[in-house]
Design goal:
Distance between the termini: 8 Å
Number of domains: 1
CATH class: Mainly Alpha
Shape: globular
CATH architecture: Orthogonal Bundle
Largest sheet: 2 strands, antiparallel
Strand order of the largest sheet: 1-2
CATH topology: Arc Repressor Mutant, subunit A
Structural class: mainly alpha
CATH superfamily: Winged helix-like DNA-binding domain superfamily/Winged helix DNA-binding domain
Helix content: 40-55%
Number of strands: 2
Number of helices: 3
């Protein structure tokens, strides 16, 4: 298991609570920030870190990137 700090854990739980568990159910940083009740800039930084750690997957799209949790 990857070590997550408290904000990373909060963001990962929010992604799971939103049902973003596969490519066809991905959510935007805006969706996740609203669920976490935190600023979008903070959430964006955490999403980059979670992607780097291999906990979530970032999918680049035309308008806004989508994110979903990986089952690890």
């Amino acid at each position: 298991m990857v070590d997550l700090n408290p904000i990373e854990g909060l963001v990962l739980q929010a992604i799971k609570d939103l049902g973003a568990t596969s490519d066809d159910k991905k959510k935007t940083a805006d969706d996740i920030a609203k669920k976490c009740n935190r600023p979008k800039g903070m959430i964006s930084n955490v999403l980059v870190e979670l992607d780097r750690k291999g906990v979530i997957k970032r999918v680049v799209r035309e308008k806004a990137s989508g994110y979903y949790a990986l089952n690890k």
